Predict the structure of Tyrosine--tRNA ligase.
Amino acid sequence: MAYHPKSEFLRIMIERGFLADCTDYQGLDEALLEGGMPGYIGFDATARSLHVGSLIQIMMLRWMQKCGQKPIVLMGGGTTKVGDPSFRADERPLLTPAQIDDNIAGIRQVFSRYLDFGDAPTGALMLNNAEWLEDLNYLEFLRDIGRHFSVNRMLAFESVKSRLDREQSLSFLEFNYMILQAYDFLELNRRYGCRLQMGGSDQWGNIVNGIDLTRRVLDHEIYGLTSPLLTTSDGKKMGKTADGAIWLNADMRAPYEFWQFWRNTNDADVGRFLKLYTELPVEECDRLGALEGSEINAAKIRLANEVTTLAHGPEAAAAAEATAREVFEKGGVGDDLPTVTLAPGDFPIDGHSISAQQMFVAAGLTKSGKDTKRLFAEGGARIDDAPADDPARLFTAADLARPVKLSAGRKRHALVTLAD
């Protein structure tokens, strides 16, 4: 990166690896030096929680606030009803207003850990674009806003072009999404003085549209900044695993499993992830990331502890590390393992028995009976740390009077117990 910024926020974005591109480095740098500058990132409410794939954007907002600027979390209560087509092969399923509101309430819990909301000059705001999108008059919107958009230019954006090149359908509903997102930036600038939009590099076209629209309508100078689309060193999409997304809400992914995800980071990713997902000094991130052999495991534990502390608090991080040590080093049960509690009515076989196969599925260690049988056949299943080869083995309420530990491979564990 040739540009050497004067502002703390832009310097951090560059040296920690957050920055992929910027519409105007010098202009944004000078605006940031004034302090208290509002900047936003939009999040569509497609689930009750964000997952690890969104964490890079959350950290950008956190750093923005720590550097004396004003972060805005824009929830897409309106745009979620349309669906972002960016780099998708198909149209997103449409959600009801009640589902969207429920999702926004869940996502709010995530941000309460990372940002300080309030009336201070740098106090974070959480807004909902339904506030200005739901009451739009379509004819007026076409006349006042639609006339500023070139269809030729919109078709050239990579997110649209990639769909068309693959001859995959792109509905008019989705095509409107980029106009609505551009209008968000215009309204945020008009209502809250917002001068910066950030997002992943797949949002570059949408961000540029918003900047162009705001300049045309309000003649205001605003800026865009994107982060790289992150994959792990082995090419996998960040935040997805074999057993599903790594959610940030504790009720959707237990803190122990969240901690374990970071503990299992590939050696080659440790230094980079420490810079992006923790607040450790860059020099310490580089030092830890350069460790080799068995020493890199200490760096992974540090990574897991730091990230889990931000997401779930220091007590959850300490409990997860203690459980990992108990499970892996001492072969014990561990107090913080994910636990499935069965009631007497949960025994499907004759009303008083449940099979090992059914318990593995109930515990979320496997997705189906077929998946469970494969795990057992390949020797990856253990019950109370002993190898298990019979998925049809039955357990009664008496067997579950004490917790039964289930293991799928070396790294995934759960407890099954009986309700009091």
User: Anything to note?
Assistant: The CA atoms of residues 170 and 176 lie 10 Å apart. The chain has a mean pLDDT of 87. The radius of gyration is 24 Å. Residues 97-114 form the longest helix (18 residues).
